[in-house]
Amino acid sequence: MFTEIATNPKYEKLLISTGNILNVLDNAIPLRKSHEELLDSLKLCSECASGRVDDQIEFRESDGQVLRANAELKQKITENARNEISIGVKLFMNKNSKECVKDAANALMSILNVDYVDNVVLAYHPNQYHTKISPGTPDVTAATLQHQSELKWSQSANDSDLNDLKELWFCLEDFALQKQINQLGIADLDTEALQLLCQSARVQPVIAQINLAACCIVPPTLKEFCTQRDIQLLTHSDPEVLLTDENFILPNYTVDWSLRYQVHVRCRGVLTAKGYLLGARKCLASDKVKE
């Protein structure tokens, strides 16, 4: 299936859903990093498509959607009433495209078959697009973050990058104002960038994620600002770019965005479903990144 997709000019855009990956991936690797988990999930989709794994996979030719175990995913989500579960999402943008934000949010609602999600955290790093993450490199995330610890988001970005971030946030705000996202969050901004985002935001962030591998101590100014604005400070261990073009399973495609969703049962805090969605498009020769 994937070979046919890659060689067919009809499929300029592609959407892949890994389905619920709990109890499917190798549980012998409990500390699998997020980018490794996504790569393993995509490999599972590829093996299902080739018939090497007995698992349901659906290819919707009309819109280039590859869905693994979609029925099982929806069944898992509807095991409990909607008000009894919490759906948390982290959206990783590989480019500053408002269209891609809308594609990601709409795909999320459609594939999960829900009217709203509880929170979406946006991760956007304009100067990290070309970071190569090799699945065979030990502790690559830590190594990447060690390098990143020397930078601040606002110092490595320019005015155009900040405006791009605000445009992406504006798109997510539209979904929040339509009650399709209950809470919005942002990842890895330093105090200056977070302040500038809040100044122009119609919907204020209620979550700010920071990576303690890149920032061993929470900056006092950031902590003070979040306290004043009632923004919850959370930690994470994700790389800035979850999946680069070099590590995507299909050649000649560029990754637009990827997201991770997690479904918890509120009263018990039990994780009942987890998976990834990914949007990509065929990369024309004129569009390929010049390194």
From TrEMBL:
Residue ranges of every copy of the NADP-dependent oxidoreductase domain listed in the record: 76-237
Matches recorded under InterPro entries: Gclm (IPR032963), NAD(P)_OxRdtase_dom_sf (IPR036812), NADP_OxRdtase_dom (IPR023210)
Gene Ontology terms for molecular function: enzyme regulator activity; glutamate-cysteine ligase catalytic subunit binding
Keywords: Glutathione biosynthesis
Functional pathway: Sulfur metabolism; glutathione biosynthesis; glutathione from L-cysteine and L-glutamate: step 1/2
Entry-linked Pfam families: Aldo_ket_red (PF00248)
Protein name: GCS light chain
Gene Ontology annotations of biological process type: glutathione biosynthetic process
Family: Belongs to the aldo/keto reductase family. Glutamate--cysteine ligase light chain subfamily.
Gene3D superfamilies, sorted: NADP-dependent oxidoreductase domain
Signal sequence residues: none
Quaternary structure, from the entry: Heterodimer of a catalytic heavy chain and a regulatory light chain.
